[in-house]
UniProtKB/TrEMBL annotation:
Protein name per Swiss-Prot or TrEMBL: Type II secretion system protein J
UniProt subcellular location: Cell inner membrane
Protein family per UniProt: Belongs to the GSP J family.
Biological classification of the source: Bacteria, Pseudomonadati, Pseudomonadota, Gammaproteobacteria, Moraxellales
Annotated source species: Acinetobacter pragensis
Ranges in a coiled coil: 33-60
Keywords, in A-Z order: Cell inner membrane, Cell membrane, Coiled coil, Membrane, Methylation, Transmembrane, Transmembrane helix
Length: 208
């Protein structure tokens, strides 16, 4: 009579141990791939938001015009940079349905340090009562630092230039030669240089 062949208990335990090790390794590889995919997805989303904000600022600055605004019967310069407040007049609004929409509007960038968000506010008319509600949208999130400087050609943190020799009535309609926007998003610093005289020179630089 032939003896029946089978697995011994030791062989079964060894097989189970090998299977457990392979399963653990396989899970680690799968978990690593999943985390890499998730990080890539988040990175792509952040990059898309950053590019969208850059393109919006590009369109706004290209259309900046030396037109003053009238807010609650007070003349506002064509561009204002005071104590972190930044707004300016722009043109280029289309009215394809002939609804009487003004071609010019007022745009403001507002940074909320608590929310870490950069907002874009748009007033649809240069003449306002002071109580007009703007169209508001989030331009960027996870913003750890945001700063705007004007270049004329030197960097200034206020506009119109408050120096006595330039404090003339005509200054309210002047635009600087360019802007420098410094921001930090998710630990990465950026500088956006915007020329208000030659829009071909607007570019996006990443700083380590």
């Amino acid at each position: 009579m032939s003896r029946r062949q089978g697995f011994t208990l030791v062989e079964l335990l060894v097989a189970i141990a090998i299977f457990a090790v392979l399963s653990a390794l396989g899970w680690k590889v799968f978990d690593y791939i999943s985390k890499v995919k998730e990080r890539n997805t988040q990175h792509e989303a952040r990059l898309s938001e950053l590019q969208g904000a850059y393109q919006q600022i590009l369109r706004d600055t290209v259309q900046a015009v030396p037109l003053t605004a009238n807010i609650n019967n007070k003349i506002q310069p064509a561009m204002v940079l005071q104590n972190g407040r930044f707004n300016f007049s722009k043109t280029g609004v289309t009215d394809p349905l002939n609804q009487g929409i003004a071609p010019d509007e007022r745009v403001e960038y507002k940074y909320d340090a608590n929310e870490k968000k950069l907002y874009r506010l748009k007033y649809r008319n240069l003449n306002q009562t002071g109580q007009d509600q703007p169209d508001s949208s989030v331009l960027l999130s996870d913003v750890e630092h945001f700063e705007i400087l004007v270049m004329n050609p030197n960097e200034l943190n206020a506009w119109p230039d408050p120096t006595p020799d330039l404090a003339q009535e005509s200054d309210v309609q002047r635009l600087p030669r360019g802007l420098k926007i410094k921001l930090q998003v998710n630990g990465v610093e950026y500088e956006w240089l915007c020329s208000l005289l030659n829009t071909d020179h607007l570019k996006l630089n990443s700083v380590s």
